[in-house]
Amino acid sequence: MVRWEATTIPPVHLTDDAQATSSEELTQSSRGLKIYISVDMEGISGISGRDQTSNSGTEYGRSRKLMADDTNAAIRGAIAAGATEIVVNDSHGGQRNLLPEDLHPSASLISHNFKRHGMVEGLDDTFDAAIFIGYHAKAGAPVGLFAHTGSGVVRNLEINGISIGEGGMNTMMADWYGVPVVLVTGDNVAVNEVQQVAKEAKGVVVKHAINAQAVHLRSLEAVREDIERVAKEAVSAVQDKEPTRVSVYSVRLQFQNTLVPYVSEVLPSIKRPSPDTLEFSVDSMPDAYATIRFLYRWVRP
To answer: What is the pTM of this model?
Structure first.
């Protein structure tokens, strides 16, 4: 007969850092996690043509379902990692693409594009993490499916001297509130772009851009499995993040034509250093975001 001898296990004394980490993890676990998901359409798996991304397109109905399927995969992963509250913000075009009946029942939905902060409407410091689903490359990217910034009238956007796209701008908003961006999905160009700003974010490449129009699509089933798995990993590893803020946000917006700059230079604090370009500076990222969005979305000469 094999006899198992009882052994005395010495107590483990945690360092201050370890105690703090354990307390933080226990607090997150006990209260559950609140997750923000911003969903665009161009970077959704299975989408490869403009007839899929416009509500007048013949394939638009299918795209709405594809959009929901990628989103639901991220929601399932987040729930498996301990998320108890999930807010989804429809972030494409008119921003009424996701049908509530197609969305996972554990998530709530922000819908319609009449929003001050567009793709990150509703994001604040109460969230534990942010996830970006279906993102695309910025305007001017030589390779990247549906590459553009904002409504398509922008040639280039710079904030504090750094050229960024929608994903970069949205990451800067998350940084302002101290919310880590933990996952981004889209084509290979978009994922790489966002990870240049959201350096800790995991990425799921759902398709590979051959150029600005042609694309190599991955299996839908494999993509959804990857999104769910990586979302679970990313949310499971989330840690508190301090807000990242600077004293001045200097914005330079170069447009595809001169009409928007011509109309907008009459606004207080807006400068027009060249015919196609506007510049302004503010002291907060939310104000910078709202002004950028106003200029590209609502000024329509």
So the answer is: 0.90
